[in-house]
Design goal:
Number of domains: 1
Helix content: over 70%
Order of helices and strands: HHHHHHHHHHHHHHHHH
Largest sheet: none
Distance between the termini: 36 Å
Oligomer: single chain
Radius of gyration: 21 Å
Number of helices: 17
Structural class: mainly alpha
Number of strands: 0
Shape: globular
Length: about 300
Amino acid sequence: MQYQVSTPSELELSGLKPASGFESSADPELPSPDPDNPPWGLLAAFLTWIGSIFLLVLPVLFAVPYLVQHYRGSRPTAELLYADKTYIIIVMAGILPAHLITLFLAWAVATRRGKYPARKVLGWSWKPSFGLWQSVSLAILLFLAAWIITLTLGGQETELERIILSSRAAALIIAFVAVATAPLVEEVIYRGILFPALQRRVGAAAAVSIVTLLFAAPHVQQYWPNFAAILSIALLSAVLTIVRARTGRLLPCFVIHLVFNGIQSLLIVFEPYLRAVLERSQPPAPAGALIQIIRFLV
């Protein structure tokens, strides 16, 4: 479907074309928005993705007043900051407003500031052949695959692991954000906005590859130099994007991501109790292996 316009506009320059085919989804005479042929272009999709990346800096900015007051002009080292529990908690708490701003940005692009229903334009529905139970089952299989990769390859301590270990409060905040906002934000940005714009321009196969890499790239710093964690992230991204390509729906991707993160968040919440039980068990080796996967969080 091509969106026809008579004159250039600012929306065209930004990659957002006027959707003359469906001005109002409430009008029964107009077709519903198509998630695979969205009313935004590739430029708008990439600008939205770039905006979401820049917003990752926002939590650090929230900690600037604390750094200025606490360190009084001196430049703390990375090791010192990782040991500063207050700084870590402020940064982790700042993820939530950053995610909310990102969601608002994505909503504005996807719905053209409310002109289209978000559920329809993003594909927030089930496909009869791939529903809730298929999504939950696939999420569990992905978690088991990530566990096996981690046990097989091992890996060094990651930045995220150090944050989780910094304090119980930081670990609980990460567990909360990983379920409350992260799956929704990441799926809307990568599989909801970026993928369909790429698919329309370069085809499904190339779009799956590009989105998989773009999703994994921001996580590399978190998990470097743990190649097992990076490989697991890439696997998760590839499977989620393939599901989006095959179903034409975003809701299954969200549920898969939610369940995957949810399992790990539960393990983080109950880690102290699991550690106590496993460290008393014989042989002791499985305890260390479980703790390693507990701290692997997407």
